[in-house]
Amino acid sequence: MASLTIRDLPERTVSILKHRAIRNHRSLNGEVLSIFSYVVSFGDAFDFPLQPREDNCVWRKKDPILELAGKWEDARPIEATIADIEGARTFGREVAL
Question: What are the pLDDT digits (tens) for 11-34?
């Protein structure tokens, strides 16, 4: 396999890539390879945002939670149910980059 060296990356870019790697349970190298693979496969046809969300652990699961909201018996507002679910979540394993 070929290797590639990238020089002079802005700290902000590196920080965003590290956040994405953590969110996606990948190494930094694995995240960059995933991005490259996506861009090569789809080109500019799709938007590929590099910006991390405010709280990746919570936001990654919020859309599926909202889809489930209201599909079970619960007299509380949806926001209270979501807060209970989010409060019960764990942060998972530690990842060193």
Answer: 888 999 999 999 889 999 999 998
Report pTM. 0.45
Buried b (16+ CB within 10 A) or exposed e, 62-76: eeeeeeeeeeeeeee
34 CB contacts (<8 Å, ≥6 apart)? 24, 26
Domain boundaries, the chain: 11-45, 56-88
Q: Is 80 exposed, middle or buried (0-12, 13-18, 19+ CB in 10 A)?
A: exposed
Could you give the CA distance from residue 58 to residue 86 in angstroms, rounded to a whole number? 7
Q: Rounded to an integer, what distance in angstroms lies between the CA atom of residue 13 and that of residue 54?
A: 16
Question: Considering only CA atoms, which of 2, 74, 85 is closest in space to residue 36?
Answer: 2
